[in-house]
Amino acid sequence: MTSRTDTTVKAAIEQVYDTWIAAVRKQDLDTIISLYTDDVLAFDAIMALQFKGKEAYRKHWQTCMEFCPAKEKEPFFEIHELVVQSEGDLAFAHALMRCGFKEGDKIDASWMRMSSGLRRHNGEWKIAHEHFSAPFEMPSGKAMFYLSPDDSEHAVRPVPPGMSTISAHLVCADAPAAIEFYKKAFNAMETPLGQLEMDGVFMHGELAIGDSMIMIAQENADCGMRAPHSLNGTPVSLHLYVPDVDRAFQRAIEAGAKEIMPVTDMFWGDRYGVVEDPEGHRWSMATHVRDMSPEEIQQGAREFFVQMAK
What we know:
Layout: H1 7-26, H2 29-34, E1 36-43, E2 51-52, H3 54-67, E3 74-87, E4 90-103, E5 106-121, E6 124-133, E7 168-172, H4 175-186, E8 189-198, E9 201-209, E10 212-218, H5 228-231, E11 237-241, H6 245-255, E12 258-265, E13 270-276, E14 282-288, H7 294-309
Parallel strand pairs: 1-6, 7-10, 11-14
Antiparallel strand pairs: 1-2, 3-4, 4-5, 5-6, 8-9, 9-10, 12-13, 13-14
Helix pairs in contact: 4-6
């Protein structure tokens, strides 16, 4: 395939994407799917590694629309820097794409990379392969949908790499000991910042557990920071998903956690248990083991609370 593309072909493929963008903005599923070949192979950035065939991809599009309904907002889709190369009845295209919603003058949208292969049949171009992707950050593995085309890897981020929009900040009576416990119990890893001390006084700690961060503070009554034992309990629990809750639960107990609720199959589809760490913070731990419909969860909840009342 050469880099020289017939201007007629380029215009035809640009028209395919103009139609595609307009249909996505209208959430016109029939028109969107009509632009793909019957044997399309799609690599989307979400849900699954691949979607084989038009019908499978149609179901995926439908799921995405239901998951992110426009409601009062206007769907926002646009393509930047579309490049097309072609030879014969085959073409390759790539671009940067931004998708999300628009409400008045405010645009809430994410950037992704798009590449696609198109095939011409009976004079009509259709998308035979489509690939959306986003870079990911280390060590969390989270997709970096917040990037923009003029970003560099050295840009300062409003949310630092590895951090989530919301992160737990735990006040502990003995912060260094708590950090060592979390390493043993929950396989936590210290970040490059690790522990910040000033004149031998613990100031701040950061730990990564799976794809999330927690911050650790030393109890300081003068600053209004009190640990659970000073408060005779805590109203907040942290929820930790793990691949094998039975093994993770036992590891936490062996590290010094106290069992609050044994691991049990729960009505919402999780295998679930609760421990209290030596600092008094409570951790619910779970592995999702089965998908449940809202109706099944409702019925399971009724049966669960009837049983609890006995």
